[in-house]
Amino acid sequence: MADGQGDPGVFTATALPADPRLLPTVTNAFLGTRVFRDILHAAGVYSGAAGDTHRADVPSPLELRMAAPGVRSPAESFTLNTWTGTFSHTIQTPGYTATHQLYAHHSLVPLMASSIISRRSDGSTHPIAVHRQSLFVPQSQDLDLTPGPDFQGAHYIYGQTLVPEVEGGPRPAVHMLWTPIPQSLTLGGEERERCWEFLTAVAGSEEEAKRSYSEGLSLVAAGSLHRSHVRAWAALRRGCSVELDGPLALRQALQGCLYYLLSAIPPRDSPGVPFHGISPGGLSNGTRGEDYWGHIFWDQDPWMFPNILLLHPEAARAILHYRIRTLEGAKHNAREQGYEGAKFPWESAATGREVCPEEIYGAQEIHVTGDVLLAFEQYYCTTQDQKLFREDGGWELVEAVAQYWCSRMVWSEEEQLYHIRGVMPPDEYHSQVDNSAYTNAVARRSLNFATDMARDLLLPVPEEWEDRARKIKVPFDEERKYHPEYDGYSPGEPVKQADVVLLGFPLMHPMSAEVRRNDLEMYEPVTDPAGPAMTWSMFAVGWLELKELQRAWSQLEKCFSNITEPFKVWVENPDGSGAVNFLTGMGGFLQVVLFGFTGFRITRSGLLFDPAFPDDITKLKVSCISYLGNKLEVTITREEMRMEITETSRDPPAPPLEAVLESGQRFPLWEGMA
């Protein structure tokens, strides 16, 4: 990748990708769509029973494309501006310019909006018409929709999903109001410029849809609809700012990842709105047969969550609340398989019950339960928020996960260790294996966290939690000094994706530098190059740990084969198959920057750091790291690392922080001091 100039957060093209799946998305955590698509999705609105449940298609009035009648081959451009959270399409002719903007409003989340601005570029006085092309029809294959009376100039439809996820369960309601868009928009002969604005409000109740639409109209009347969105989005971006000096392609990838991932999290000013999790392809995708049907996987917890936690702990808390809210479904899953406690589903929708259409994954890929609890542990170590556990259901979840792992283990008389048998590890090329190294290590970590959490909450600790954590088998080859993926794994067997390398990070399983190196050396050459995008980021983090900077860079570069042009939309696999807008891969990529280059490690005793980055990068600045109620700005160059507290919580008061060097030298940190 060559260095280059240009704004790394603005992606412009004169033509759209041939594959419509690679069009950019506009999302605000409650509503989302792909540009120029005739459907949108609302968070938590699924239709279909069990393994057939999928995001319900809501017809989208926002699906329109401008055309300039009578103009041959006008100049066109398409721009995704990640700084303003806005997509635009511009047509330029000799006599006028027309721009269509589309965005999901980031402070009024039940609202999506578009505008068309027509502006003369000469002295003519004849009327100018811009036509719209649209496939919008107010019908859905997933919703029983009924027209209602118009409201403040808007058309209105409402209805419910056709099939509940669980027999006899709720069928989510959808109420939608939208501004009718005429076939032609005309700039009058005496007008130099005109702006038309169109609103779409979607909510779970008529009252909320009407309230949001009315608020949108008020913002339109004040001339501040788009400005209010940009202000809210810019505040989120400032609060999660990550910048680096390096190749343009790397900086573009970074800002693209931040745009798509931050679009998926709840806004700061909507604490009362339930959050429904983040699926691999995000809210804009997930119709039946697409992007895993909008289900929530482990992709959310170890891949996306750590970045969100470091930059926006309130949003991280909302993600944990999704898991707490679906705990009863997880308990049902455990009972159904004959175990105690809670088994989180491989694929989750609204209830927490297993909705994976293929039984083998739901039955065997049980490491997801430990992945969920790892997120709770990271959150607690970063925030010390005991309220989540004492009052908001967090402890019940921790306890249920510990009970599940205990009931899932069996004692081996031969080895005098606990085994977990018949599982599929993260490497999905193998199934029905015994003692997956990753599964057992994450189970041990779950039990250790449950024990520590119980003590912090002054609760009794069941003896079996500590006993099983001590005695669970994590396969290790004493001769070769590496971790076999499972009992009976033979060196050289192909591996689908990151698996054993996850022991080093994010699990931080105890091992020497020699063993860490051996694990990387063993699995890097046998990991499928056609596998999912997040894999190479974890190899990059491992090599950064060992200060093998060129090897880390070569792994990070592999990610770029999953980033499509021109809008930096990720695909799951380099051949374009799998999920698109693949937030999992973006989450892994961001972890290379936020945890690999900085060396940050979230531990019970502190936030460790050990920076390292390849030669092509000269500076990294992360402006708003959240830790124990403090906001830290961290700047790393080849010469120094600067750390400044920019904000301190007053209620509750944040504890004082200090930086401790390996030499033992301590530097107190306080607000405003670098």
Automatic annotation (TrEMBL):
Organism: Phainopepla nitens (Phainopepla)
The keyword Plastid is annotated on this UniProt entry: no
Protein name: Protein-glucosylgalactosylhydroxylysine glucosidase
Job description of the protein: Catalyzes the hydrolysis of glucose from the disaccharide unit linked to hydroxylysine residues of collagen and collagen-like proteins.
Classification via PANTHER family: GLYCOSYL HYDROLASE-RELATED, PROTEIN-GLUCOSYLGALACTOSYLHYDROXYLYSINE GLUCOSIDASE
InterPro entries assigned to the protein according to its UniProt record, in alphabetical order: 6-hairpin_glycosidase_sf, 6hp_glycosidase-like_sf, Glyco_hydro_65_M
GO biological processes: carbohydrate metabolic process
Molecular function (Gene Ontology), one example: protein-glucosylgalactosylhydroxylysine glucosidase activity
UniProt family annotation: Belongs to the glycosyl hydrolase 65 family.
UniProt entry keywords in alphabetical sequence: Glycosidase, Hydrolase
Catalytic activity: (5R)-5-O-[alpha-D-glucosyl-(1->2)-beta-D-galactosyl]-5-hydroxy-L-lysyl-[collagen] + H2O = (5R)-5-O-(beta-D-galactosyl)-5-hydroxy-L-lysyl-[collagen] + D-glucose
Keyword Hydrolase: yes
